Amino acid sequence: MQHHIQNKIYHVEILPPKQATEKLREDLKSFTDKYEKVRQSGRCACITDNAMGLLAFQGAECIEELGLAVNKGQVMIHLNTFHTKENLHEILDSCKKLGIEYLLVVSGDGSDRLPKLQPADVGAGDAQSVTSVELLRYIGREYPGVFTMGVAFNPYEPPEHEFEKLRRKFDAGASFIITQPIIEKNAVIDEMLAKYPGVPVIIEAWMSKKISLLSDAVGYTIPEDTPFDPIATLKQIHQDYPGCGVYLSLLGFKTQYPLISETWK
Predict the structure, then answer these.
(1) Which residues are bridge partners to 246 per DSSP?
(2) Phi/psi at 224 (nearest 5 deg)?
(3) Residues 66-85: pLDDT tens digits?
(4) Report field, pTM of the whole predicted structure over 0.70
(5) How many structural domains does the chain have?
(6) In sequence order, what DSSP letters do the residues of the chain get, joined into one string?
């Protein structure tokens, strides 16, 4: 992962089609087009797992079924705890077969339609529920040396609580961090960087002009008419965090993708 930072390789978020879609063929084509743009440009495609608790096709499943190429180090699969044990292994086996190295392991957003891993499924009988910590340990134990696993860091949570969770994630096998999206320099992220100077950190940049959608993440209401320039903010993130990588969420492929190459030089 440090290689990505040193070589200024963007991490680009791609959402796979939702299973409830009524235009599956069109959505699969859109997924393919975005994936191929990222792959051919040498960036890293980061594919979400049931984002916002909405049942979607799995990233590795889409890549395999569509016959898409996997370049070494250019795919990251998000993996959360809302799966059956059987499905979890199907995902991990598919990633191993395809040569996908990077996993972002998160607890995830649930819903009534999604199953949830139970402590007994991952050999964590002493736990009350399965979080990213238990899932990290299980993957590391069942697939030793196969995956490089990262975790999320939320600077909007109470810092003492978030730093304790981060310590347990590293103890469980995490080796890199991806933050929640920020739009300006953040004191909690600065503290995290000071605590873990040798750990690769990827800063998430909010690329939607609809900045009000960030309200739930930051914990306060951002008015819908708040002006926001994602490209200008991205440039500022590079200046504020020159030693970090950057993850682009909600990127506009038609309008923004051609511009991002100019922001990181």
Answers:
(1) 203
(2) -65, -25
(3) 999 999 999 999 999 999 99
(4) yes
(5) 1
(6) -HHHHHTT--EEEEPPPBTT-S-HHHHHHHHHHHHHHHHHTT-EEEE-SSGGG--B--HHHHHHHHT----TT-EEEEE-S-S-HHHHHHHHHHHHHHT--EEEE------TTS----GGGGT-TT-SS--HHHHHHHHHHHSTTT-EEEEEE-TTS-HHHHHHHHHHHHHTT--EEEEEEESS--HHHHHHHHH-TTS-EEEEEE--S-GGGGHHHHTS---TT----HHHHHHHHHHH-TTSEEEEES--TTTTGGGGGGT--
Instruction: Report the amino acid identity of residue 241.
Output: Y
Q: Are 70 and 98 in contact (CB under 8 A)?
A: yes
Write down how long the chain is: 265
Measure the CA–CA gap between 74 and 168, rounded to whole angstroms: 27
Q: What is the 3-state secondary structure (H, E, C) of 5-61?
A: HHCCCCEEEECCCECCCCCHHHHHHHHHHHHHHHHHCCCEEEECCCHHHCCECCHHH
pLDDT tens digits along 185-212: 999 999 999 999 999 999 999 999 989 8
CA separation for the pair 142, 162 (Å, rounded): 27
| 83: three-class secondary structure by DSSP | coil
Domain span at residue 204?
Answer: 2-262
Residue with tokens 């009350």: 128
Query: Please, are residues 35 and 14 in contact by the beta-carbon 8 Å criterion?
Result: yes
188: CATH: 3.20.20.220
Q: How far apart, in whole angstroms, are the C-alpha atoms of residue 98 and residue 77?
A: 12
Beta-carbon neighbour count of residue 113 at 10 Å?
12
* Structure-token pair, residue 190: 């600065």
